[in-house]
Design a protein that fits this description.
Layout lengths: L8 H15 L6 H8 L3 H8 L2 H23 L5 H14 L1 H6 L2 H9 L4 H28 L8 H21 L3 H16 L3
Protein backbone atom coordinates (compact mmCIF):
# COMPACT_ATOMS: atom_id res chain seq x y z
CA UNK A 1 0.00 0.00 0.00
CA UNK A 2 1.48 3.36 -1.02
CA UNK A 3 1.75 6.24 1.41
CA UNK A 4 0.19 9.61 0.64
CA UNK A 5 2.58 12.45 -0.03
CA UNK A 6 3.19 14.59 3.00
CA UNK A 7 4.12 17.69 1.01
CA UNK A 8 2.69 20.15 -1.49
CA UNK A 9 4.20 19.23 -4.86
CA UNK A 10 4.02 22.78 -6.25
CA UNK A 11 5.58 24.26 -3.11
CA UNK A 12 8.57 21.92 -3.21
CA UNK A 13 8.90 22.48 -6.96
CA UNK A 14 9.11 26.23 -6.28
CA UNK A 15 11.81 25.56 -3.67
CA UNK A 16 13.74 23.55 -6.25
CA UNK A 17 13.30 26.50 -8.64
CA UNK A 18 14.82 28.86 -6.07
CA UNK A 19 17.88 26.66 -5.73
CA UNK A 20 18.40 26.02 -9.44
CA UNK A 21 17.84 29.71 -10.11
CA UNK A 22 20.45 30.69 -7.55
CA UNK A 23 23.09 28.02 -8.20
CA UNK A 24 22.41 26.82 -11.73
CA UNK A 25 21.95 23.24 -12.81
CA UNK A 26 25.51 21.96 -12.66
CA UNK A 27 26.34 23.37 -9.22
CA UNK A 28 23.18 21.94 -7.65
CA UNK A 29 23.56 18.44 -6.26
CA UNK A 30 20.74 16.08 -5.39
CA UNK A 31 21.72 16.51 -1.73
CA UNK A 32 21.39 20.29 -2.14
CA UNK A 33 17.89 19.68 -3.47
CA UNK A 34 17.01 17.35 -0.59
CA UNK A 35 18.18 19.96 1.92
CA UNK A 36 16.51 22.93 0.22
CA UNK A 37 13.25 21.24 -0.75
CA UNK A 38 12.84 19.70 2.67
CA UNK A 39 11.84 16.28 1.38
CA UNK A 40 13.59 12.92 1.19
CA UNK A 41 15.70 11.89 -1.78
CA UNK A 42 13.28 9.02 -2.50
CA UNK A 43 10.38 11.50 -2.57
CA UNK A 44 12.23 13.59 -5.14
CA UNK A 45 12.82 10.56 -7.35
CA UNK A 46 9.29 9.19 -6.87
CA UNK A 47 7.62 12.55 -7.56
CA UNK A 48 9.87 14.23 -10.12
CA UNK A 49 12.31 11.62 -11.41
CA UNK A 50 16.01 12.35 -11.60
CA UNK A 51 17.70 15.75 -11.23
CA UNK A 52 17.41 16.58 -14.94
CA UNK A 53 13.72 15.71 -15.05
CA UNK A 54 13.16 17.85 -11.97
CA UNK A 55 15.04 20.69 -13.64
CA UNK A 56 12.87 20.43 -16.75
CA UNK A 57 9.76 20.54 -14.52
CA UNK A 58 11.19 23.67 -12.86
CA UNK A 59 11.76 25.28 -16.28
CA UNK A 60 8.19 24.46 -17.33
CA UNK A 61 6.80 25.93 -14.10
CA UNK A 62 8.95 29.04 -14.50
CA UNK A 63 7.72 29.53 -18.06
CA UNK A 64 4.11 29.25 -16.86
CA UNK A 65 4.80 31.92 -14.23
CA UNK A 66 6.46 34.29 -16.72
CA UNK A 67 3.73 33.84 -19.33
CA UNK A 68 1.08 34.45 -16.69
CA UNK A 69 2.83 37.67 -15.60
CA UNK A 70 3.14 38.80 -19.22
CA UNK A 71 -0.56 38.16 -19.87
CA UNK A 72 -1.50 40.26 -16.85
CA UNK A 73 0.51 43.15 -18.27
CA UNK A 74 -1.30 43.01 -21.60
CA UNK A 75 -4.59 44.78 -21.12
CA UNK A 76 -6.34 47.84 -22.55
CA UNK A 77 -3.32 50.10 -22.21
CA UNK A 78 -1.60 51.65 -25.18
CA UNK A 79 0.75 49.32 -27.04
CA UNK A 80 3.83 51.31 -26.04
CA UNK A 81 2.74 51.24 -22.39
CA UNK A 82 2.31 47.46 -22.56
CA UNK A 83 5.78 47.06 -24.09
CA UNK A 84 7.23 49.35 -21.42
CA UNK A 85 5.51 47.29 -18.72
CA UNK A 86 7.04 44.11 -20.15
CA UNK A 87 10.50 45.66 -19.88
CA UNK A 88 9.74 47.04 -16.40
CA UNK A 89 8.77 43.54 -15.30
CA UNK A 90 12.38 42.56 -15.96
CA UNK A 91 13.78 45.60 -14.14
CA UNK A 92 11.49 45.38 -11.13
CA UNK A 93 11.29 41.66 -10.38
CA UNK A 94 13.48 40.93 -7.34
CA UNK A 95 14.60 37.52 -8.60
CA UNK A 96 15.63 38.97 -11.97
CA UNK A 97 17.76 41.59 -10.22
CA UNK A 98 19.44 39.08 -7.96
CA UNK A 99 19.75 35.98 -10.11
CA UNK A 100 18.84 37.00 -13.63
CA UNK A 101 16.19 35.22 -15.66
CA UNK A 102 16.04 31.47 -15.05
CA UNK A 103 15.32 30.90 -18.74
CA UNK A 104 18.27 33.01 -19.91
CA UNK A 105 20.47 31.30 -17.31
CA UNK A 106 19.32 27.91 -18.65
CA UNK A 107 20.01 28.95 -22.25
CA UNK A 108 23.53 30.03 -21.38
CA UNK A 109 24.36 27.05 -19.16
CA UNK A 110 22.68 24.15 -20.93
CA UNK A 111 21.37 24.90 -24.44
CA UNK A 112 24.53 23.76 -26.19
CA UNK A 113 24.49 20.41 -24.41
CA UNK A 114 20.84 19.59 -23.80
CA UNK A 115 18.44 19.35 -26.73
CA UNK A 116 15.33 19.56 -24.55
CA UNK A 117 16.50 22.73 -22.80
CA UNK A 118 17.43 24.18 -26.19
CA UNK A 119 13.95 23.35 -27.50
CA UNK A 120 12.24 24.92 -24.46
CA UNK A 121 14.48 27.99 -24.80
CA UNK A 122 13.66 28.35 -28.49
CA UNK A 123 9.96 27.96 -27.78
CA UNK A 124 10.16 30.64 -25.08
CA UNK A 125 11.96 33.06 -27.42
CA UNK A 126 9.48 32.44 -30.23
CA UNK A 127 6.44 32.94 -27.98
CA UNK A 128 7.84 36.18 -26.60
CA UNK A 129 8.68 37.42 -30.09
CA UNK A 130 5.12 36.54 -31.17
CA UNK A 131 3.73 38.64 -28.31
CA UNK A 132 5.94 41.55 -29.36
CA UNK A 133 5.00 41.07 -33.01
CA UNK A 134 1.26 41.12 -32.26
CA UNK A 135 1.71 44.26 -30.15
CA UNK A 136 3.73 45.92 -32.89
CA UNK A 137 1.12 45.08 -35.53
CA UNK A 138 -1.61 46.52 -33.29
CA UNK A 139 0.52 49.62 -32.66
CA UNK A 140 1.04 50.05 -36.39
CA UNK A 141 -2.69 49.68 -36.98
CA UNK A 142 -3.43 52.43 -34.43
CA UNK A 143 -0.52 54.65 -35.55
CA UNK A 144 1.34 54.33 -32.27
CA UNK A 145 4.27 52.55 -33.94
CA UNK A 146 5.84 53.53 -37.23
CA UNK A 147 4.52 51.47 -40.15
CA UNK A 148 8.01 51.68 -41.68
CA UNK A 149 9.18 48.85 -39.43
CA UNK A 150 8.87 45.20 -40.33
CA UNK A 151 6.95 43.74 -37.34
CA UNK A 152 8.92 40.48 -37.29
CA UNK A 153 12.31 42.21 -37.35
CA UNK A 154 11.22 44.74 -34.74
CA UNK A 155 9.91 41.97 -32.46
CA UNK A 156 13.29 40.20 -32.77
CA UNK A 157 15.02 43.45 -31.86
CA UNK A 158 12.81 43.90 -28.78
CA UNK A 159 13.35 40.29 -27.73
CA UNK A 160 17.10 40.78 -28.02
CA UNK A 161 16.88 43.92 -25.90
CA UNK A 162 14.77 42.14 -23.28
CA UNK A 163 17.26 39.27 -23.11
CA UNK A 164 20.15 41.69 -22.77
CA UNK A 165 18.30 43.63 -20.10
CA UNK A 166 17.74 40.39 -18.17
CA UNK A 167 21.49 39.82 -18.14
CA UNK A 168 22.28 43.44 -17.30
CA UNK A 169 19.95 43.64 -14.28
CA UNK A 170 21.77 40.62 -12.85
CA UNK A 171 25.12 42.40 -13.03
CA UNK A 172 24.26 46.04 -12.34
CA UNK A 173 22.10 48.15 -10.03
CA UNK A 174 22.05 51.19 -12.34
CA UNK A 175 18.29 51.85 -12.64
CA UNK A 176 18.84 54.98 -14.73
CA UNK A 177 20.79 52.93 -17.27
CA UNK A 178 17.96 50.36 -17.50
CA UNK A 179 15.37 53.11 -17.98
CA UNK A 180 17.51 54.74 -20.70
CA UNK A 181 17.61 51.43 -22.58
CA UNK A 182 13.84 51.01 -22.32
CA UNK A 183 13.17 54.63 -23.31
CA UNK A 184 15.43 54.33 -26.36
CA UNK A 185 13.60 51.20 -27.47
CA UNK A 186 10.27 53.00 -27.14
CA UNK A 187 11.57 55.95 -29.18
CA UNK A 188 12.75 53.60 -31.92
CA UNK A 189 9.21 52.23 -32.19
CA UNK A 190 7.94 55.66 -33.18
CA UNK A 191 10.57 56.70 -35.68
CA UNK A 192 12.12 54.83 -38.59
CA UNK A 193 15.87 55.10 -38.97
Amino acid sequence: MSRNKQFDTDAVLLRAMELFWYQGYEKTSVQDLVDHMGIHRKSIYDTFGDKRTLYLAVVDRYLQMIQSKMKRLIDDLSVKKIIKNLFCMVMDEDNFRQQGCLMVNSMVELSLHDEEVRSKSQDYLEKTERIFCELIQEGQRTGEISAQWDPVMLSQFLMNTMTGLRVLVKTSQDRERFENIVDMNLKILEHPM
